Amino acid sequence: MSETFFGSDFAQLQSTDPEIANVLLDELTRLRTGIQLIASENFTSPAVLTALGSTLSNKYAEGYPGKRYYGGCEVVDVAETIGIERAKSLFGADHANLQPHSGASANIAVFGAFLQPGDTYLAMSLPHGGHLTHGAGVSYSGKWFNPVHYGVAEGTENIDYDQLRDLAREHKPKMIIAGGSAIPRLIDFKAIREIADEVGAIMHVDAAHFIGLVAGKAIPSPVPYADVVSFTTHKVLRGPRSGMIVCKQEHAAAIDKAVFPMMQGGPMMHVIAAKAVALKECATPEYQKYVKDVIVNSQALTAGLAAEGMRPVTGGTDTHLALLDLQGIDVSGKEAEQRASDSGIVLNKNSIPYDPKPAAVTSGVRVGTPSLTTQGMGVPEMAKIASMIGRAVKTDNPSVHAQIKAEVLDLTAQFPAYPRS
Ligand SMILES: *Cc1c(COP(=O)(O)O)cnc(C)c1O
Fold first, then answer.
1. What is the full DSSP assignment across 205-254?
2. Which of 108, 134, 181, 350 is the best mutation target for the ligand 1 pocket, counting ligand atoms within 8 Å of the beta carbon and taking the most?
3. Whole-angstrom Cα distance, residue 3 to residue 37?
4. Do 251 and 297 belong together in one domain?
5. How crowded is the C-beta side of 391, counted as CA atoms within 13 Å?
6. Would you call 241 a catalytic residue per the annotation?
7. What per-residue confidence (pLDDT) applies to 33?
8. Are the beta carbons of 392 and 340 closer than 8 angstroms?
9. 241 CA closest ligand 1 atom index
10. Which of 78, 103, 337, 348 could, after both became Cys, cross-link 208 (CB 3.0–4.6 A)?
């Protein structure tokens, strides 16, 4: 079977390693024939994939442009320098480090730059929408440091800034982290800056989820407020699977040293080149329109799911993602994930704030619209998808799931991911 999407070298891979060539084809088929609602995923451009599949992967380049520990870095230096300049310009940042291998790697570098083992910091609790690297017991961030967690208020389900301020005054943290992976609403960066200033803490925003919306100028930026902003590059931002850090000039040297040599070895130059490609794409009017559409779609999908009896946590969303409480339809997050999957719809179970069910079961699901919007779907399709999800999760009848799967195939045929050229 031929596949033009992967380019001419794919035929060679098919002959030398058909098993892995088939995995690449099967994954492409999976993307083209399903509805992808994972809020942290997106479909990168062929240009980004080309940079990822390049010989820059071979190059050892420990250090930074112009100051490397290896010879022969003059070519890859160009890619990293262009990427740094694009990041600074796109985010209006003093300094950018493109070397973190992932969001988790970016975060450990921030810890390395500002904290000593045992130090106290404040972060959003995981069950209220935070992240494993913000102090979960199973993570370095919980094992080697002393996290104190704030959460959302029970009534509004929004960040409880009064609690955050009280905890900051009580515990005098060295750092306050804002951000998480299941926060549907905007964060008040100004309020957190004021609290950080009052107690003399570093303000770290982990913008992994929403940085793409910032890049496309659809929501306010944390960059003017935060000492340091870390993020992933593969979520709404639509770049390669990786991480990045931007910060104020006064922290530039500490961040660079914490990424390399404190936490990482050689940078992945092919990924850095791919990040540069993505950053250029993010500066276009097309990308700005894309992120506005992502939010419009997210709000339409959320309204449709609410009409199906799935309650949006906080009442709605300002971003690319929504968290739905399924207690009203008496379905667990785990059941919903499986039933949607049986119907060709990929979403994830997710704890909701004050969830009575354990993390392996949950009372909620998280959905996001970055991938569907990249495929070109709009508000009418969100209404159809909300209805499909509603029908899928409320039954365990396989024939209903098979019927929805056929509808998914119809829809994805009209809006293909990675269209055949
Ligand atoms: C996704 C995410 C990360 C981790 O990114 P990886 O690239 O998977 O390591 C860190 N923080 C937040 C808030 C995230 O959403």
1. EE-TTTHHHHHTTSS--STTT-SEEEEESSSTT---S-EEEEE-GGGHHH
2. 181
3. 25
4. no
5. 17
6. yes
7. 96
8. yes
9. 7
10. 103
Question: Does residue 312 share a domain with residue 262?
Answer: no
- Helices 398-414, 333-342: crossing angle, 10 deg rounding: 60
Burial of residue 233, with CB atoms counted within 10 A of its CB: 0-12 exposed, 13-18 middle, 19 or more buried: buried
Mean pLDDT by 10 residues, the chain (421 residues): 65 94 96 97 96 94 97 98 98 98 98 98 96 97 98 96 98 98 98 98 98 98 98 98 98 98 98 98 98 98 98 98 98 98 98 96 98 98 98 98 98 94 70
Token pair, residue 208, equals 């992994």
Report which protein residue has its CA nearest ligand 1's atom 4.
Answer: 103
In total, how many domains does the chain have? 2
Regarding whether 274 and 291 lie in a shared domain, the answer is no
Answer with the one of 228, 256, 282 that is the final residue of a domain: 282
Q: Which range of residues forms the domain containing residue 80?
A: 55-282
In the prediction, which pLDDT does 323 show? 98
Which of the residues 3, 33, 50, 62 is marked catalytic?
62
Task: Give me 210's structure tokens.
Answer: 């929403």
Residue among 41, 125, 133 whose CB has most ligand 1 atoms within 8 A, to mutate: 133
Q: 238 and 380: one domain?
A: no
> What is the dihedral angle through the alpha carbons of 332, 335, 337, 339, rounded to the nearest 10 degrees?
-140
Q: Answer yes or no: is 255 within a domain.
A: yes
Tell me if 209 CB under 6 Å of ligand 1: yes
Q: Which of 259, 282, 305 is the last residue of a domain?
A: 282
Kindly state whether residues 218 and 353 are assigned to the same domain: no
pLDDT at 6: 67
The answer to whether position 241 is within a domain reads yes
